[in-house]
Design a protein that fits this description.
Blueprint (H helix, E strand, L loop, with lengths): L1 H9 L5 E6 L1 E14 L6 E14 H10 L3 E9 L2 H13 L6 E4 L6 E7 L7 E8 L7 H14 L5 E6 L7 H14 L2 E6 L11 E2 L3 H8 L6 H15 L3 E5 L5 E5 L2 E3 L2 E3 L5 E4 L13 H14 L4 H15 L10 H9 L1
Parallel strand pairs: 1-4, 1-8, 2-6, 4-5, 8-9, 9-10, 10-11
Antiparallel strand pairs: 2-3, 6-7, 11-12, 12-15, 13-14
Helix pairs in contact: 1-10, 2-8, 4-5, 6-7, 8-9, 9-10
Length: 340
């Protein structure tokens, strides 16, 4: 199995993946605890440094890039300093930005995490501040996004939809993704934070266990209930695959029954429960879902079976949660983990 998985990983480099979704800047403000404020019972931090990284759909973009595939982001950057930083981060990483539409009066989503800790101690998140767009994308921006999908996704092996609820993936954009992918024979996977049920007719979805429970309207406290809820969601989504991330309990992969002219085929309809890779001593889950959908999608595009792709995604997810902050897994790391 490991030899086969390493062979799949070697084919990542020949694949092209388009990521359509909400591009976010992740900002980290670090400070050392100084004293308690006289104004209120709160901790005063002495500022030490600021770091920014690619978040949301941009983190999925960065993960696909780190895995060695060619990646093309399609999304929106605001005409603000955060939007400028977003574009500079992409270019510094070597990722093309032709698919990104700049909307001058739109706010770029920024998630600011305030981190407290000394140099000899683990720095902990104290609070998160989200700065979000207050309006939907301008109609001209939507037109431009539709045009970008039409121009850039026609030769893609796969499309990842990364929907964080900021309005990038409109009904028109989604329909164009469906049309282009259908003509190109491309895989389409989706991770949607709030509206997964509107993303029907795609190849695969990657909800976490809590999202599955909410969408299916039933508890998912063991493997049997996860499978029951997953089957229900698969039918509602009209999807081929469902990859459920279960935190310290690993992942669940469910395949939908396929149909031909003679009825259901038993080649589909399987399920697999994959234990967590590595240790359950998790350092940080920030952006782990982006790593999972990226590895899963690139692996499917590289010719992996669903179970092989899920196994690789599980390994990648296990690696990334051991890193602090918004992180990626490099293709060499993934290949090495398959050997050890």
């Amino acid at each position: 199995m490991s030899a086969r998985l390493r062979d799949v990983v070697r084919h990542f480099a020949g694949r092209t993946v388009v990521v359509v979704g909400d591009l976010i800047v992740d900002e980290y403000l670090f400070g050392r605890p100084a004293r308690i404020s006289r104004e209120a019972p709160v901790l005063i931090l002495r500022f030490t440094e600021r770091e920014i990284s690619l978040g949301g759909a941009a983190n999925a973009v960065n993960n696909v890039h780190a895995l060695g595939a060619r990646v093309i982001p399609v999304g929106i950057a605001g005409g603000d300093p955060a939007g400028t930083e977003l574009l500079e981060l992409l270019r510094a990483t070597g990722i093309e930005s032709d698919g990104i539409v700049v909307e001058d009066r739109r706010r770029t989503p920024v998630k600011t995490r305030v981190m407290a800790g000394g140099y000899q101690a683990t720095r902990q998140q104290v609070v998160r501040i989200d700065r979000e767009p207050v309006t939907e994308p301008h109609p001209a921006t939507e037109d431009a996004l539709v045009e970008r999908v039409s121009a850039l996704a026609t030769r893609a092996d796969a499309v990842i939809i990364s929907d964080y609820g900021y309005g990038t993936v409109t009904a028109r954009v989604l329909e164009r993704v469906r049309d282009v992918a259908r003509r190109a024979g491309a895989i389409v996977t989706v991770d949607s934070r709030y509206e997964l049920l509107r993303f029907t007719g795609l190849t695969a979805a990657t909800p976490n266990e809590a999202e599955l429970e909410a969408l299916a309207g039933m508890p998912v406290d063991d493997e049997r209930s996860v499978e029951k809820a997953g089957r229900h969601l698969l039918e509602r989504l009209d999807a081929r695959l469902l990859l459920v991330t279960r935190g310290s309990r690993g992942m669940a992969l469910l395949e939908r029954e396929t149909f031909d002219g003679h009825g259901p085929s038993r080649s589909g309809g399987g399920s697999a429960f994959i234990p967590i890779h590595g240790t359950d001593e998790i350092a940080d889950v920030t952006g782990a879902g982006d790593t999972v959908i990226s590895a899963f999608t690139v692996a499917l595009a590289a010719g992996a079976t669903p179970l092989e792709a899920a196994t690789l995604a599980n390994v990648a997810g296990g690696l990334v949660v051991m890193k602090r902050g918004t992180a990626t897994v490099a293709v060499a790391e993934l290949a090495q983990a398959l050997v050890s």
